[in-house]
Amino acid sequence: MIEFRDVTYAYPEALSPVLNHLNMSVEEGEFILVVGPSGAGKSTLLRCLNGLVPLFYGGRFGGQVQVFGNDPLEKEPREMSRVVGFVFQDPETQFVVDTVEGELAFAMENHNLPPLLMRKRVEEVLDQLNIAHLRNREVSTLSGGEKQRVAIASVLTLSPRVLVLDEPTSQLDPQAAEEVLTTLQKLNADLGLTIILSEHRLERVVQYADRILYMPGVGQEPISGSPQKVLQHIDLTPPLITLAKELGWDEIPLTIKAGRKQVRRMPLVAKILSSEIPPSTAGSEQGDAPHSSSPIAMENVWFSYNGHDALRGVSLSVRPGEFIALMGRNGSGKTTLLKQILGLLHPKRGIVRVYGLDTSHTDLEHIVSHVGYVPQNPGSLLFAETVREELDFTRLSHKMPKGDYMPLLTKLGLAAHAESYPRDLSVGERQRVALAAILVADPEIILLDEPTRGLDYVQKRSLANLLQKQKAEGHTVLMATHDVELVATCADRVIILGDGEVIVDGPAREVMAGSMVFASQINKLFRHPRFLTVEDVLHAVGSSKSHS
């Protein structure tokens, strides 16, 4: 059993506690989903379970935590790792060894486990996480999603009693995320392993949870209960549940299967699906533009890492003001393609042009005067003492005067952090700071690599609105993402990569509708190309009612 008794915690120099007199308990074998807005204290709560808070982070701590009879304050995180397996938001922070197999064995070696047992457990977790093919790979060569699965496998080798995961699917493609979550469900059901997991993409995980703990933020009482009960009373809900609440369904469905039962009872469904309701603007027509007028043009681009082809004959042309989503499974070449456009990587063969300039023969400084890039790890962009100074640095490096940043910071939900040290912020907040630091330079081309990592649904809507405004003002946006719901809301065009090749390139609605992997929740619910988003359905229902 796990218990929090009157736990209060504040980070060093913080004016208010992030956890305030928290009381909660978890029974052995439960699957607990922790949700709440970015910065509400979800990661902090998880870190209390193995003693990282406060032993590593410092600050002011009160109350008591018990984890299966262990007090994390009395034991070091190393000793607690036999009880609590912890997977961080950023998997790179927990890697120590160069190779995958070495990383899986590292913790067991530190605990002096017998070699035969170590080999057995390594084989088991390689199979459980479907990463046997990565055994001999160097960790540095893995994609973000592959690193996430290796991080999960590395903590499972110690056979902990509770597995704690901080946004484990944030960098995974839909198929890989489903594989990981199915594995967690199996560990929970077959072995009775207690699982405590925080996640923003509830559409992926809510159906697996026994109970939800909703943390609304500082000064407000957490809400705990069954998924249906909690989701009925909060705003941070996935599209399926948002639609159910908007339409006043009697039951809150947690799965598409349950939702389709409700859809069949909708009296207007037949009329909606048969009527000539125009699709929304998402998925507008796309076509090739001549290279002379293209912000971005790639011709037969090849690129390899250590002899492995990451891009294979990629050709594409981007029109001014297009919003393009790059999708595909982990390791398909999305990040590599973005780095080619920025000039961080140069093709082995072929040409990449930005506004007609060959990136292989153009200074990076000149390219970044046109292109803003937010990488998967936003921390690589952040080094100033305050958020305001980060934005000052960007403006000055582009020979632009300092400005009033509060309107932009307000849109990104960062107004209260203007004078904060960026690296002390949550992952989602750092992601938004990095985006702000790019947008203040007003780049003509915006490149985003997994921009919704660490963002809750409200922040994702704000991000979508902000990016759509950038597009409306003529900016070109390329976004590499696994977030199908954001793509359904924003993108004009979707390019799906597979093993470094362009597999599909077309209008968003045409590409996503009916896809087994890349369809949105609403499209899976109705199985009709007219419906990708909640707004599509509400508009159609409203139109049908007004004409009935």
What does this structure look like?
This protein has 2 domains: 2-236, P-loop containing nucleotide triphosphate hydrolases (Rossmann fold, 3-Layer(aba) Sandwich), CATH 3.40.50.300; 291-508, 3-Layer(aba) Sandwich (Rossmann fold), CATH 3.40.50.300. A hairpin with an 8-residue loop joins strand 1 and strand 2 (19-26). It has 22 helices and 19 strands. It is 35% helix and 20% strand.
| Number of domains as seen in the coordinates | 2
CA-atom Rg in angstroms: 24 Å
CATH homologous superfamily heading of the largest domain? P-loop containing nucleotide triphosphate hydrolases
Query: What gross morphology would you assign?
Result: globular
CATH overall fold name of the largest domain: Rossmann fold
Secondary structure: helix percent: 25-40%
Number of helices: 22
What does the main sheet amount to? Answer: 6 strands, mixed
CATH structural architecture of the largest domain: 3-Layer(aba) Sandwich
How large is the share of residues in beta strands?
15-25%
Average pLDDT rating = 89
Tell me the distance between the termini. 57 Å
Structural class: alpha/beta
Strand order of the largest sheet: 5-6-7-3-8-9
Features:
548 residues, alpha/beta, Rossmann fold, 6-stranded mixed sheet
Secondary structure elements and pairings:
Layout: E1 2-10, E2 19-26, E3 31-35, H1 42-48, H2 52-55, E4 60-67, H3 77-80, E5 84-87, H4 100-110, H5 115-128, H6 144-156, E6 162-166, H7 174-191, E7 194-198, H8 202-205, E8 211-214, E9 223-225, H9 227-231, H10 239-246, H11 256-263, H12 269-274, E10 296-305, E11 308-318, E12 323-327, H13 334-342, E13 349-354, E14 357-358, H14 364-367, E15 371-374, H15 387-397, H16 406-411, H17 427-439, E16 445-449, H18 457-472, E17 476-480, H19 484-490, E18 493-498, E19 501-507, H20 508-512, H21 521-526, H22 534-546
Parallel strand pairs: 3-7, 3-8, 5-6, 6-7, 12-17, 12-18, 15-16, 16-17
Antiparallel strand pairs: 1-2, 1-4, 8-9, 10-11, 10-13, 13-14, 18-19
Helix pairs in contact: 4-5, 4-6, 5-6, 15-17
